[in-house]
């Protein structure tokens, strides 16, 4: 979840009105500093719970089914169950 802070700042930038002559970088830093001063460091993690609930199931699937198995599924090849390296399927 290392990108949560940037996503929170991005959302705040999108909701705010743009100031004439302000660059993207100055707007980014202005919003980040305002957030920190007004709400503290926890402001950068607002909304992390819904994001974890959305991302975690997909990451769990990636953990359970390693890369070779997922590539096989994505390429529509026939899966040879004897060649899988999953511990639960070993004989």
In short:
The chain has helices spanning 4-15, 24-39, 48-64, 67-74.
Number of domains: 2
Question: Rg to the nearest angstrom?
Answer: 21 Å
By DSSP, the count of extended strands is 0
User: What's the tally of helices?
Assistant: 4
Structural class, from helix and strand content?
A: mainly alpha
Name the average pLDDT.
76
Shape: elongated
Low-pLDDT segments? none
Report the helical percentage.
55-70%
Largest sheet: none
Q: Helix-strand pattern, N to C? A: HHHH
What does this structure look like?
The protein is mainly α and 91 residues long. It has two domains: 4-45, no CATH class; 48-89, no CATH class. The chain has four helices and no strands. The chain has helices at residues 4-15, 24-39, 48-64, 67-74. α1 packs across α2 (24-39). The longest helix is centred in the middle third of the chain and has 17 residues, at 48-64. The two termini are 37 Å apart.
């Amino acid at each position: 979840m290392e990108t949560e802070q940037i996503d929170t700042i991005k959302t705040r930038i999108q909701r705010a009105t743009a100031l004439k002559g302000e660059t993207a970088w100055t707007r980014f830093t202005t919003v980040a500093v305002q957030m920190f001063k007004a709400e503290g460091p926890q402001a950068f993690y607002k909304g992390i719970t819904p994001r974890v609930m959305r991302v975690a199931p997909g990451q769990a699937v990636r953990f359970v089914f390693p890369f070779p198995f997922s590539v096989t599924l994505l390429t529509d090849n026939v899966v040879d169950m004897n060649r899988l390296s999953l511990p639960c399927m070993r004989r």
